[in-house]
Amino acid sequence: MTLVALQDVAKSVLLADDSRLEILRGIDLEVSAGDHVSIVGRSGSGKSTLLNILGMLDAPTSGTVSFEGREVRRMRSGRLDRLRGDNVGFVFQQFNLLPGRTAIDNVMMPLGHAKGRMFWNRRQIAADMLERVGLGHRVDQVADRLSGGEQQRVAIARALVRGPVLILADEPTGALDIDTGASVMSLLDEVATETDAALVTITHDLHVAARARRHYRLDAGTLVPADLSRAFEASTLAAPVPAPPIGPSA
Amino acid sequence: MTGFLGALADAWAEIRVHKLRVLLSLIGIAVSVGALTAVVAISEYQRQYQAEQSDRWGGRAATIVVGVSSEEGEPVDIGDFDERFERVSERFAFSHTARIVQGMTVGVRLPEGITDVNARLMDPVYSQIHREQLLEGRWLRDSDIEALAPAVVISEPLWDRLGRVPLTQHPIVTLTGAGGGTYQVVGVVPRQGFGDEELRIDLLYDGYRDRVDALPEGAWSQYEIWVGPEQADEIGPVLAMDLRAGLPEGQTVSVSRSDWAAQPGTMEVQATFEMVTGGIAALILALGALSLINIQLVAMRQRVREIGVRRAFGASSGRVFFSVFLESLVATTVAGAIGIAIVVAVLRSDWLLTSMFVGMQDVPPFPMRAALIGLVASVIVGAVSGFIPALVALRVKVIDAIRF
């Protein structure tokens, strides 16, 4: 089942000199449940803009975005917020944890916008999720004082705590060293696979991108399938490409 | 329901995390709400104090004063008019009436010789009508008429001249002339302010009249009746009519009110006092609110990313607005309540009140009106200083906030 579908999506912004900068052009992309997609591209190529449109944080200038078959543009703001909160989990490069709050406060935050059992049992659910990402012993630690890897684990726990069907990760290992980054990505892959959630990862790192089943490259605002083998060969940091898991391909 | 509770939990968590900022910004609110509450409360105490001060001169509300005089300045037969007044009083069933004679002097034997001292004759009820306060001892009583040495109450300067003998040693004073003899000092009236050196002696009306048939020349008598303020206007004209009926030719009776409540403008002066002091307190409160808005706006700039993250995880714009709004509302209400509690605790101190309002007899309980005004003010300040930052939070664009 298609979760998010982008059809002929374009995004442009008006600059100070009244000229128009085109960020995305003619993007067509479908992400289904259980999918694992990576998007690579240079800085300023529009990767984050694309991720924001996928996560319904931003609206395209033209084209349509549908979530579970319903066109997003026609939804009212409040409904869109609820839809996003119920279905989408974000992992940011700079973690974006709430400053001064404990790990559990951060993970509880999305549950504060839920209803029913999730709202009333939010502390227990958050504690279980922290346990799941290996931070059961750091529950009451103020998030700012955790290491980078631990902070990203908290961010992952926060993204997954409401059981989203779509996980959007924007440079999730960008602020981490290679080993910690690999560990964080393993966790993200594992949890996404367990919950059958779709995972869309935006990255500069070819090794991170190689973990996905489908690979795209965003170049000058256009999304095209990427051949990571060639990218690795062209890279001065060439390294063996991990074998992609068996699954649907683009 | 969960939305409201969630917003409240968010607001409380924000206050908890930023304790120091919240504490510093709210000290001003607590102080200004406390100041407003204190001004309103002190204004109430001041009203009571002024009323009591006025009562000492003109009698409590409502005091009706009856005077009798002759048109050609001939002496009035006081005994005759006493009987007339007593008859009429019985018909009206007055509970508090007092006869007073003023404008007379008596010779008092002092260490430096016989000295003329102002004297007043009065019924014991006079002290109730005028809230007379004593420095020492007690006031005159009806039963004092049976005492062999008649009782007198003297002023503090006279007591000083007599050597300030403690009343437990039963000091006496010797009067000369008509009504002369030995009198026992039973009470001392304190000085009525700085520079009061009046030598005065108060005697029991009936006790003096038993000894002296005619009042000395220049003395004038009047009658005071203490009635409920709501009855005074009704009683006055009827009483005057009754007292004038069958009055000997050439005599006139005046009936008027002497208490402060009958003076035009008294309430307006009080209201003006409260308005001016309340205005100053409101200004302080407004300054506190402005500084709170300022701090909240600065804090909001630092929280742009946090708001963006919350929005990304499903917080609606309404929820963000409500959370920020509640933060101020909850915090200022708590700060206001603390300010009010401190003022209540301080103003419940008898020592403070009796130091501020020397001689106040009936200390009123802490006025609830003051506490309510303070609480309402803190809620309004919270709402205003929460609304503006909440509007700013509402305008935060999620994309920009996350990149911030």
TrEMBL record, chain A:
Gene3D superfamilies: P-loop containing nucleotide triphosphate hydrolases (3.40.50.300). One of its GO terms (molecular function) is ATP binding. One of its GO terms (cellular component) is membrane protein complex. Residues 4-245 form the ABC transporter domain. The keyword Oxidoreductase does not apply. PROSITE patterns: ABC_TRANSPORTER_1, ABC_TRANSPORTER_2. The keyword DNA-binding does not apply. Keywords: ATP-binding, Nucleotide-binding, Transport. Coiled coil: none annotated. It comes from the Bacteria. This is ABC transporter ATP-binding protein. It comes from Microbacterium sp. A8/3-1.
